[in-house]
Amino acid sequence: MDYDLISCQISRSKVERGDFSHFLIPNPGDGLNNGGFPCKRRQTVPRWIMSDMTMAAPPGDPVVQFSIFTANRLGRLHALVNLLGSQTVHVLALTVLDTSDSAIIRIVVDDPDKARSLLRQNDFPFAETKLVVTEVNSTEELGKLMAALLEAELSINYLYSFIPHPRGKSMLAISVEDNDLAAQTLKRHNFQVLNQADISR
Which residue, of 3, 6, 35, 115, is most buried by count of CB atoms within 10 Å of its CB? Predict the structure, then answer.
């Protein structure tokens, strides 16, 4: 092997906690089924301070985020959304971090198993991360949510909102350093914490 497996493993741990100081891309033909790790060539991107489910997923499964690594090229986001939509996988939340030549597309979908297969089949390197998702229906509630997490001394890596849900819910996807503690804290402050089954269409 001509790659540094230890480096790949370190990169995986960084990706899982949201530190994308670099990401690793599999060579074509490697036959990898693990979301782009290990890999044989490295692409460096600037470090940002930031850091899913089938329709029949068991109740309580946490919401999964896919972080998709791609060149910052015209049409790549369109191709990704069209690929998922062609197989009835709905993108429920979306955010993009980009530089002049690289991008990380974070998405939450309603059918993670199908999305995972499509990403692998179409050579989109990706990582998966669990998120805390909660309903926030007013600016006042947003302030209370921030205060609750601060009270628990929880740092927020990043957050982004969902596309309006068919049932009218306003929801936030939150990446924090301790999902279990965050969920317990929010529930204690009367916020509803949603799982994958809750957000499916």
Answer: 115
